[in-house]
Amino acid sequence: MKLFVYVNLYLLMVILPSSAFVLDEVFKEKLNNINASVYPNSACLNDLNTMIRAIGTADGIWALKILDSSSKIQSGIAILNEDIGQFDECIQAENKDASISGKYCLGYINPVTPNTELHQIRTDKVRLMQNVMALTGSKISSSFANQKFTWAGCLPKSCSINDFSYFYNNILQRFISGIEIDFSEQLCATKYDESSLSIGAILTIVFFCIMIGIMIIETFYDLYCQKFGIEPSIFLTAFSMYTNSQKLFKISKSNDQLQFLNGLKFFSMIWVVLGHTYSEAIQAPLSNVLDVLTWSNQLYSMLLVSGLMAVDTFFVVGGCLVAYVYMLAIEKGGNINIFIYYLHRFIRLTPPLGALILVVANITPYLGNGPRWTLIRTYQSFCQENWWSTLLYIQNYVSIPKVCAGHCWYLAIDMQLYILSPFIMYSMKRYTKLSFVCLGAVISIITGVNFYVAWIKKYGALVSNIYIDSTDYQSNFYLKTHVRAGPWLFGILAGYIIFEMKQKRLKFRPHKVLNIIAWLCSLVLLLFCIFIGHDFLRRPEYSEWGNSLHIAFIRNIWSIAICWIMVSCALGYGGPINWFLSLPIYQVLNRFTYSIYLVHLVLIDMWYSSTKTPIHFSDLMMGYYFWGHFCFTFIISYFWVLLFESPFIILEKIILGALLKLRRQKADT
């Protein structure tokens, strides 16, 4: 392997002193060589001169803090310990009259290597990893390593990005050539950032205070009625914590329920949160990047890489429930009112989502700070600009790449497919055989188109493959409804079959041996989908056939396996798996799944963005982080459900019930 300039940087770091006084001498030298009359930023230059003169004086501790908080040569270079400086020390550094204070900027080290192929220079950290691993004799892997090596700088707040680039790149050039530090204003911070609440933040806080106040008042009203045996008003207890908590933790039983779906959905959500815990941690600065590569060489790491399949499980389950509930309503003699059908879904999803958008767009930037906190401000700007597309559930087509609450792309696809569901279900009820043929044809067309697009665009099947730029794949392919509809359509078919079998109109009684074989095949297919890409889909050599076939068929294979699990469990052939997935506890936990899905990634991003020291990566630490993230998310989701889910479900029933009653009265007259 060709050793890039980063090897020289590695060797340099082993012998280079790391004292802030070395930077002091370099700054003095650079300042002496600058012609103040022609330097574009005289304010920065003057503050730097003042800072240098203050070092060593009785009142110069603030100046030393500015130099000391910048990145220097740290221990742990051999395992790629990243340095992000001292954020708090930098922004808190200030002279006596507060005329000069620290400005922290996080930069990325880039190699200057022209005429090199794109896939060789796409990620500089990987190249550094590869060089160090070559020196240490470690096995090279490419998974989960698409971040660049970081360098933190601290200068007076009067200095611009150009000043940061000038001084720190000149410092590096003094010792080594072939690299440069790329600073961005988006990754800079001072202690004066976001010092006062915006109008939007104030209004959002007022809104939440009103909602919480209503919940508290109605809870006391409910408790008062319970104590004195008074029949409470349903409307005045819609926000009651007491009544709604009872409903949330109540176990109900009905022959029409598909209890196993509760466990299936809950564990899929666990998988999603666990996957985001790992993926977000790996994107943060790490103290042992080399260990990430060792981890990614392990076969079991695919359990996290393949966590994307959990989303397809939700699509399958969603399609199954749509078909099953629709057919159940028709069977009971009900007529489907399309307007109410759509309105119910919109009311079910939108209040919790709208509340999340309010928080992201107005509140989150004030909840912390840190080296990467500007990412939170970036997400804020996305929501301020494109909140409407998320609330209309079209963000997967119109707001890319600036998607508000980006992880909610799933809701857009789910809503768009839900809008189509009455037409699909009507045709299935009336033209069953033809509908099965048509849905099979649609799934085949989707599969073929996905294969063709992946082949032409040379998409990588695994987002974790850093040798392939996945930006276009995620923006223009992965998030599209016409690409992801296959699993949902499989779920529609499974839901219809389950309903017909439970109604005894479609008979299927597999022999015990056949049932065991089918279960084994399903489990093998699931394991196949998880582990198939471990080796050949992560290589630098692109495989058209491998990647295109994986993209086209892997979700179909996964969906078929999940469909068998659902059908078998629904008909009582699931054995211990059905028993486990149908445990009553999952009925309770599943009621929090939607809110967990909404808030978990926002909380994880806030935690990692506020982290001011490199994270140590290990499965044990990720396990602790996961349970911390999940438990905190669950607590927040509990109140999210009480504020924005349960009350609006009750209000919907009250309002729709009144409208239907009024319609019947008009019909009678």
UniProtKB/TrEMBL annotation:
InterPro entries: Acyl_transf_3_dom, Nose-resist-to-fluoxetine_N, O2_lipid_transport_reg. It comes from the Eukaryota. It holds the Pfam family NRF. GO terms for molecular function: acyltransferase activity, transferring groups other than amino-acyl groups. Keywords: Membrane, Signal, Transmembrane, Transmembrane helix. Residues 1-20 form the signal peptide. Residues 41-196 form the Nose resistant-to-fluoxetine protein N-terminal domain. The chain crosses the membrane at residues 197-217, 299-326, 346-367, 387-413, 434-455, 485-501, 513-537, 557-580, 592-610, 622-644. PANTHER family: O-ACYLTRANSFERASE, O-ACYLTRANSFERASE LIKE PROTEIN. This is Nose resistant-to-fluoxetine protein N-terminal domain-containing protein. It comes from Henosepilachna vigintioctopunctata.
